[in-house]
Design brief:
The chain is of the alpha+beta class. It contains 3 helices and 8 strands; from the N terminus they run ββααββββββα. Helix 1 (about 40-65) runs antiparallel to helix 2 (about 70-100).
C-alpha cells in the first residue's frame, strides 16, 4: 500500500527559488506566506530628499498662516497646504512601504487571511475556505531579470490578486504551497462537484 503524501511532508514541499525574498512556511496547522516589499533604494533616497524639502515648505506655509494677513491669501495658502500635505503623506507612505511593507497570507483554521501594510497600518481580509477558489498565476509576465508573477483567485464571487512584487518563480512556489494547504487541492480550492445518482 502506497502512502499518500500529507501537507507538511518534506516530500510535498517545493523549495522557493534560491534568491527568493518570499518566505513560505508550511506546518500541520496551516500555511504562512510572508512577502516583503520589493525595495527600490533609488525611490527611497529620492523621496527622502524630497520629503526634506517638503517639510521646509510645510513649515513655511504654516508660519505664514499663523502670521495673518488678507483672507484671500490665507484661503489660497490653506488650499495649497492641504494638497501639499496630502502629497507629502503619499510620499512618506511610499518610503515606509519600501522600507517596512509586506503582504502576508495565512491559510489556517478554515480561513484564508490576507493582510497588506506596514507596522500597525495593515488592511486585512478574511475569507472562509469555502468562499475561495480558482487559484492561478496571472499577469503580463514581466521582462528582464524580474519576470512578474501574481496569484489570482476568486473570493465571494470577485476576482482578487495577491503577490505584490513577486517574481514568477516566487509566485509559482507560493501557488503550489497554497494548493497543498487547501482542502480541495485538485480543483483549485473549490469543492468537488456533487456526484449525480
Amino acid at each position: 500500500m502506497t502512502r499518500v503524501p500529507q501537507v507538511g511532508d518534506k516530500a510535498t514541499r517545493q523549495p522557493p527559488p534560491p534568491d527568493a525574498r518570499v518566505s513560505i512556511r508550511e506546518t500541520p496547522d496551516g500555511l504562512g506566506i510572508h512577502n516583503p516589499a520589493r525595495r527600490n533604494i533609488v525611490a527611497v533616497l529620492f523621496l527622502s530628499l524630497w520629503l526634506a524639502g517638503w517639510a521646509a515648505g510645510e513649515a513655511f506655509a504654516l508660519s505664514e498662516l499663523t502670521r495673518g494677513g488678507n483672507i484671500a491669501g490665507a484661503l489660497f495658502l490653506l488650499a495649497w497646504l492641504a494638497i501639499w500635505t496630502l502629497g507629502g503623506l503619499a510620499a512618506l507612505a511610499i518610503v515606509l512601504w519600501n522600507l517596512f511593507g509586506s503582504e502576508r497570507l495565512f491559510v489556517t483554521g478554515g480561513a484564508l487571511v490576507r493582510s497588506v501594510g506596514f507596522g500597525p497600518l495593515r488592511r486585512r481580509r478574511v475569507h472562509a475556505l469555502d468562499e475561495v477558489g480558482d487559484f492561478r498565476i496571472v499577469g503580463k509576465g514581466g521582462s528582464g531579470a524580474f519576470p512578474v508573477g501574481m496569484i489570482g483567485y476568486r473570493a465571494r464571487g470577485q476576482d482578487r490578486t495577491l503577490g505584490l512584487g513577486m517574481s514568477r518563480d516566487e509566485a509559482e512556489a507560493a501557488l503550489a504551497a497554497i494548493r497543498r494547504a487547501l482542502p480541495f487541492p485538485d480543483s483549485g480550492g473549490n469543492p468537488p462537484p456533487a456526484e449525480e445518482a
